[in-house]
Amino acid sequence: MSKLVLDISMSLDGYVAGPHPTLEEPLGRGGEQLHEWAFALAAWREAHGRSGGETNVDSDVVEEHLQAIGATIMGRRMFSGGSGPWEDDPNADAWWGDDPPFHHPVFVLTHHERAPVAKQGGTTFTFVTDGIETALAHAQDAAGGADVVIGGGAHVAQQYLRAGLVDEVQLHVAPVLLGAGTRLFEAGPEGEVELLRVVESPSGVTHLKYRVAR
Amino acid sequence: MSKLVLDISMSLDGYVAGPHPTLEEPLGRGGEQLHEWAFALAAWREAHGRSGGETNVDSDVVEEHLQAIGATIMGRRMFSGGSGPWEDDPNADAWWGDDPPFHHPVFVLTHHERAPVAKQGGTTFTFVTDGIETALAHAQDAAGGADVVIGGGAHVAQQYLRAGLVDEVQLHVAPVLLGAGTRLFEAGPEGEVELLRVVESPSGVTHLKYRVAR
Predict the structure, then answer these.
(1) What confidence score (pLDDT) does residue B55 get?
(2) Is the link from the previous residue into B189 a cis peptide, with omega within 30 of 0?
(3) Are B136 and B73 in contact (CB under 8 A)?
(4) How far is A12 from chain B (nearest CA, A)?
(5) Counting one residue from A and one from B, how many pairs have CB atoms under 8 Å apart?
(6) Is the pLDDT higher at A43 or at A176?
(7) Pairing mode, if any, of strands A4-11 and A168-174?
């Protein structure tokens, strides 16, 4: 069966977003620093329809992850780009543009039913209103044996972690202390994890991959 | 001048002690798991007057650290082993025994003046009542150019981090999620750090060393 994978950039002090997110700074104060290592990469740029960029151990890690994905699960706010209520807004999916960077089925956790949205390049958004386990089941069906990835945000990642549904966690530990913000690990879960791999990068990011006991 | 170094074991979710510390479990529930990798090592056992133990990449990291230490700073509770009020108890230093594992000058942060205590094997305990900067100055004098190390506990480490006095942080990231407890990074500091080294160990611990901007 498809693995459920959480792949996320985190500050050394454990934050996946900075404090006080706004429309201008959706990742909170300093939050962009968590992702600087990725924005420069060819693998990230290609997935987002851009050319150029760097190729290094960081891009190997990103490419490996991107190629293994069969489906993505995300929260409602991640889907709508952090903007306000969108359930009645037919343009709420505009955030991701006509050719979103996923190129595979995406399942959006929400409390409001909505017809699926098919975009260019193989990305479809399907809306799931009956909880994280149902979303996971749909995503695993759609992934055809490939990985199911938690696309965020932090609250969705925390729900899956606490429910013991995550198989693998890859943390990209960025060389920055944010001092405040949204932590990935907040009130659980607990238990041993198994270190699968460490990749040190000249960019200062450390890629830590763990198997999580289910 | 001597570097101020923080060298500490931390869970993947950022805790340096588990919840609900007691006399029986001074590191809190599950806290022992943070240090299991070290207890098995020859380098740790030798420093604590025991023989045997393993030699591997973990022990290389520990030996390198131990050999670089010229002086240690610790908090009052660390000195007295987490027990209650000790200022009037002439046996309060009994926790560390007659031959403590330091073998160098130790400076204890406290609010109560007390005469220095000299132990066997080169360990002296000196009590500092006028704050963390004074303790650091004394320790740097005593260290003779070698590293000054923050011996703990977490509260003392946090004070030095927030004051911007720490030069280097080495985190031993243990493959465990404690879910609750005492976090190392709580309410600051913030800023970029520079990754100096990553050591991956078969024990599942990852040793991350950073230079901290002062």
Answers:
(1) 87
(2) yes
(3) yes
(4) 9
(5) 99
(6) A176
(7) parallel
pLDDT digit string, tens, across residues A138-161: 999 999 999 999 998 899 999 999
CB within 8 A of A130, min separation 6: which ones?
none
Q: Residue B170 corresponds to which amino acid?
A: Q
Q: Which of A177, A194, A195 sits opposite B190 (nearest CB)?
A: A177
Residue ranges of alpha helices (H) inside B19-131 are: 36-39, 42-47, 57-68, 76-79
ipTM, 2 decimals? 0.91
- pLDDT band, very low/low/confident/very high, at B146 (cuts 50, 70, 90): very high
Longest CA pairwise span in chain B (Å)? 46
Query: How does the average pLDDT of chain A come out, rounded?
Result: 91
Do the Cβ atoms of B190 and A30 come within 8 Å? yes
- Please give the average per-residue pLDDT across A103-117, as a whole number: 93
Task: State the architecture of B4-15+28-205 in CATH terms.
Answer: 3-Layer(aba) Sandwich (3.40)
Taking contacts as CB-CB distances below 8 angstroms, the residues of chain A near B13 are 14, 184-185
Asked whether the beta carbons of residue A185 and residue B14 sit closer than 8 angstroms, the reply is yes
Q: Which residue has the tokens 């260019």?
A: A120
Helix (H) or strand (E) holding B209: strand B206-212
User: How far apart are the C-alpha atoms of B192 and B207, rounded to whole Å?
Assistant: 19
Q: Is B207 exposed, middle or buried (0-12, 13-18, 19+ CB in 10 A)?
A: buried
Of A204, A206, A210, the CB nearest to B12: A210
Domain spans, chain A: 4-212
CATH C-level class of A4-212: alpha beta
